[in-house]
Amino acid sequence: xxxxxxxxxxxxxxxxxxxxxxxxxxxxxxxxxxxxxxxxxxxxxxxxxxxxxxxxxxxxxxxxxxxxxxxxxxxxxxxxxxxxxxxxxxxxxxxxxxxxxxxxxxxxxxxxxxxxxxxxxxxxxxxxxxxxxxxxxxxxxxxxxxxxxxxxxxxxxxxxxxxxxxxxxxxxxxxxxxxxxxxxxxxxxxxxxxxxxxxxxxxxxxxx
Length: 208
What we know:
Blueprint: H1 2-19, H2 27-44, H3 65-75, H4 80-93, H5 97-110, H6 115-129, H7 134-146, H8 152-164, H9 167-180, H10 186-203
Helix pairs in contact: 1-2, 4-5, 4-6, 5-6, 6-7, 6-8, 7-8, 8-9, 9-10
């Protein structure tokens, strides 16, 4: 069917040359263009290949506004580190988790001593695979080394484990995050509420 269509197009082009009274001197140029197109189709075209539906568009990944607000209270919003987080968010929203991770890889190269960058690198790596694999865990551990008294690294490590379905491991991280949160910090209650819900879920036996 593909070659038949190509032949029909060639015939139509020839008829158009005649009907439009194109100078014969230009016929060779038009013929050469048609020949190159035909050669390209013969080389790369696959007319016998069965048709297939187009791949569906990747839906944008939603980012909950309350999680953005919690991150702002934990990590700040107006720092050099935060600029990378915003760029990474944009990649995640567009449905491109790999690019979100690549943004944060650039961040840790530029800011190797930023626990914020390492924390979010772990988060994006875990989001890319849906599991807390060794690279993500290494990033979270590096963040914890850089800021051993800050609750953000254990909180986001725990969140990654929740999203991976490993609730028992997540509980240990969130307990540490609560323990590291200052009593007067606005984010302490947010983390404590999430921990309480997780504790209740584990106690019910519905998850492990």
